């Protein structure tokens, strides 16, 4: 059990480190700079977003150039939505930390309870590292081209050095080549890439952290209900009802913070996966490095959707198990408990929803896959019609 506790501490440290870097792990006494850090990161994305939109509009008739610029635009917009959602709902995020962290820490002090709540901690602990590693690998592979070009020019003494941009951009203002303005745009695109690498893993990993804590509290409640007797039944039921009310309030806050993020991630990842499939189907020859990059990119997008869907399914499953535990508890023949048990059974299970449009379960992952295939077939139909 000590190993599981250490894993949870490692899991929490990873989350704190990721959020602290971008200024999302803040407290009441945090400095103004810490709270403004996320705003600074998001400003890096503004200029390349304008350049990508302008490039997309200018090349809308060229499907290959258009879909390449669309991928970059979706990446920028996804990070902007994640960052803005946390800025707008920062108070709710801070309250979630205040509610869940201390209570979960108290549960870990009890050896019997920690055994219940730390189940599957190894899987959850690896998810932030997996997301971060995949994003870093993809971003480095994507952004290394201009660096290699600069090194090549320096080795062959080709001056002045031409700083190629990372993304397909066409800025709506004049940028003279080899000027200070050109160099600043070049640096800003690398800062934008760093923003993507830092914000996305932090936001996605925090979601898994909240889900693990909520699931752990549900397990603790199930354990207490299954073990109560006539002496302490009133106290245990009262405690579980109070905790369930707190969890319902926490779920509303999580839905408020992550609703737009999950909905946007579902739709944009389906579009991106469709674009990658379309490009691969039209490539006459694919270098091994390019193929590996495409496979890694597809795995990243599928992993992001799967993490949201899988965590939501675990929450729903644990909530249903809690209801089953209530029904199977020692209340038959006890008229004093019957009313309380019936009221608890009438409560709706905890199911994460997105604006009352869909349930965040593993079925959501299958919907994204099906949508990707539908988009691809639609794109092929337009291509044949042209």
TrEMBL record:
InterPro entries, per database record: 7tm6_olfct_rcpt (IPR004117)
Q: Which family would the database say this protein is a member of?
A: Belongs to the insect chemoreceptor superfamily. Heteromeric odorant receptor channel (TC 1.A.69) family.
Q: What would you give as a GO molecular function for this chain, any one?
A: olfactory receptor activity
Major site of localization recorded for this protein: membrane
> Keywords for this entry?
Cell membrane, Membrane, Olfaction, Receptor, Sensory transduction, Transducer, Transmembrane, Transmembrane helix
Tell me how this protein sits in the membrane. Multi-pass membrane protein
The protein here is known as Odorant receptor
Record GO biological process? signal transduction
Give the source species: Cotesia congregata
Q: Where does the sequence pass through the membrane?
A: 38-57, 63-81, 130-154, 257-280, 286-310, 331-351
Localization, UniProt: Cell membrane
One GO CC term, this protein: plasma membrane
């Amino acid at each position: 059990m000590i190993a599981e506790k250490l894993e949870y501490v490692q899991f929490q440290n990873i989350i704190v480190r990721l959020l602290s870097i971008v200024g999302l792990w803040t407290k009441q006494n945090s400095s103004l700079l810490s709270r403004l850090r996320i705003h600074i990161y998001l400003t890096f994305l503004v200029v390349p977003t304008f350049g990508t939109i302008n490039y997309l509009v200018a090349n809308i008739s060229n499907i290959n150039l258009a879909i390449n610029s669309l991928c970059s635009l979706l990446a920028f917009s996804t990070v902007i939505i994640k960052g803005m959602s946390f800025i707008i709902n920062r108070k709710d995020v801070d309250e979630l930390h205040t509610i869940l962290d201390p209570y979960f820490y108290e549960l870990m002090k009890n050896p019997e309870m920690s055994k219940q709540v730390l189940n599957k901690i190894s899987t959850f602990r690896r998810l932030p590292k997996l997301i971060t590693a995949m994003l870093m690998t993809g971003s480095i592979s994507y952004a290394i081209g201009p660096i290699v070009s600069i090194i090549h020019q320096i080795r062959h003494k080709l001056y002045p050095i031409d700083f190629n941009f990372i993304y397909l951009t066409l800025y709506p203002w004049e940028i003279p080549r080899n000027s200070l303005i050109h160099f600043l745009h070049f640096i800003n695109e690398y800062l934008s890439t760093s923003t993507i690498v830092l914000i996305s893993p932090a936001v996605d990993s925090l979601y898994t952290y909240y889900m693990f804590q909520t699931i752990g509290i549900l397990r603790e409640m199930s354990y207490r209900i299954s073990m109560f007797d006539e002496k302490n039944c009133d106290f245990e039921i009262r405690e579980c009802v109070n905790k369930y009310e707190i969890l319902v309030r926490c779920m509303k806050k999580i839905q408020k913070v992550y609703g737009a993020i999950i909905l946007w991630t579902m739709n944009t990842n389906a579009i991106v996966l469709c674009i990658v499939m379309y490009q691969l189907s039209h490539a006459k020859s694919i270098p091994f490095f390019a193929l590996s990059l495409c496979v890694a990119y597809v795995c990243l997008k599928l992993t992001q959707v799967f993490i949201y869907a899988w965590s939501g399914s675990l929450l729903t499953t644990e909530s249903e198990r809690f209801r089953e535990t209530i029904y199977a508890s020692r209340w038959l023949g006890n008229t004093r408990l019957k009313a309380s048990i019936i009221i608890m059974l009438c409560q709706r299970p905890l199911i994460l929803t997105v604006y009352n449009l869909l349930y965040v379960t593993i079925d959501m992952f299958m919907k994204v896959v099906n949508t990707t295939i539908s988009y691809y077939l639609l794109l092929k139909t337009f291509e044949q019609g042209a």
